[in-house]
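Cross-check.
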Amino acid sequence: MNPSILVNPTYPVYEPGTLWQRIVDRSQSALASGALESIATTYEIVNQAGIPFLVRVLANLDRKTAAKKEQDRKTARSGVAFNPFLPYEPELYVADLSSTHVCLLNKFNVVDHHILLITREFEEQDAALTLPDFAAASQVLAELDGLIFYNGGALAGASQRHKHLQWVPSRMLENGPGLPIASAIEAAQAIDGMVTVSTLPFIHYIAKFDSFNSSEVMSQIYLEGYLRCLNAMGGSAREAASSHDGHHLLPRAYNLLLTRHWMMLIPRSQDSFEGIAVNSLGFAGALLVRNPEQLQHLKTVTPLTLLTAVGYAA
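Predicted model, tokenized:
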């Protein structure tokens, strides 16, 4: 057992190498109890500029909408913003990752086995990411190849104020293709450690990593790549690097995508465009629309125009 992993007295100790099975087992039990409220969708692939955008169409948002209204009522009654992570629902608990982070299932998941990496103590969702954040991310990626993402602020699609990163499998459809944006990024060449994909019309900053090492090594490498991206974006890398208390706020909203081999940071200008909301997954090539009418509108607007509108034109 890794001595750095804390024991939660209510659940079995998390043993490295067992994270995937814990996610699967917890998903089954949470579905059975009703704690996990998966949102049904249909989907269509919309190709543009060589990117096979996965566009999901929501079948029913009633439960998530009702939950949001209940959160708002609790906030109005107490005068304190409701936080679903303090305390979190025990039925959604997957594992203790470290002394600073806990792994939970995403209660209203669209993608199967979607997990959250939340801070034990409250930190703002628009705070700079820190070494412990990247330690939690690299610990998950060491066991599970996939995508870690972070919605840095409300304009970037964050729906909760409590800091949390998220992980989804690279294959967001059973037996489907891998991450839609991956091939475009992997084909791009790095110059001075940074990469720009010429076919992407929105401002973005990419750092590539030669190989995936141990989670301890990668957490520092990820932090350094993140600071390079922040510096390129115009944020204060020095201030972010010195902030370990979660209180340093970045100058603007952004989305962050992270895999074993690259990270991409995208500054955000607004949370939606013409009624279509976008979070980090949109820039990974996975978009979500509310109904068939929005799907048709997205096809007319085109995915890359949408992403440019909620970001900044390159």
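The CA atoms of residues 105 and 180 lie 23 Å apart. The first strand starts at residue 41 and ends at 48. Passed to J.P. for a second look.
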